[in-house]
């Protein structure tokens, strides 16, 4: 966990609090996009945390425009909402 990005830490905190099983969760990544490495790791963490779904709001690194991702149980990676 000490080398994990903040998104993984947030999911871990929700899991540790015991309030996540079957829950819909959302988070915001302040001022930047989700890195490619984290897209699969976020999905794996959400699955292990027994979340029902996850929404991640971020900012596109190239355009500076808002970007939204989603994950639902069983998905291997978060996907961009179009």
Q: Topology of this structure?
A:
Layout: H1 6-17, E1 24-28, H2 36-48, E2 53-59, E3 66-72, E4 79-80
Parallel strand pairs: 1-2
Antiparallel strand pairs: 2-3, 3-4
Task: Explain what you see.
- It is a single chain.
- It is built from two helices and four strands, in the order αβαβββ.
- Helix content is 30%, strand content 26%.
- With 82 residues, the chain is an alpha+beta fold.
- It has a four-stranded mixed sheet with strand order 1-2-3-4, with helices on one face.
- Helix 2 links the parallel strand 1 (24-28) and strand 2 (53-59).
Strand and helix order: HEHEEE
- Strand percentage lies at 25-35%
Mean pLDDT: 91
Oligomer class = single chain
Main sheet, how many strands, which sense, barrel? 4 strands, mixed
Lateral arrangement of strands in the main beta sheet: 1-2-3-4
Number of domains: 1
Q: Total strand count, please?
A: 4
**Tally of contiguous helical segments:** 2
Which parts are unreliable, with pLDDT below 50 for 5 consecutive residues or more?
none
Instruction: Estimate percent helicity.
Output: 25-40%
What best-fitting shape do the alpha-carbon axes yield? globular
Could you say which structural class the secondary elements and strand pairing correspond to?
alpha+beta
Structural Rg: 12 Å
Intertermini distance: 31 Å
List keywords for this structure.
82 residues; alpha+beta; 4-stranded mixed β-sheet; 2 helices; globular
């Amino acid at each position: 966990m000490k080398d994990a990005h903040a998104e993984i830490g947030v999911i871990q905190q929700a899991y540790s609090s015991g309030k996540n099983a079957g829950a819909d969760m959302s988070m915001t990544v302040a001022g930047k996009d989700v890195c490619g490495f984290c897209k699969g790791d976020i999905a794996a963490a959400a699955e292990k945390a027994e979340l029902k779904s996850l929404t991640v709001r971020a900012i596109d690194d190239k355009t500076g425009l808002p970007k939204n991702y989603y994950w639902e149980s069983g998905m291997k990676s978060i996907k961009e909402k179009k």
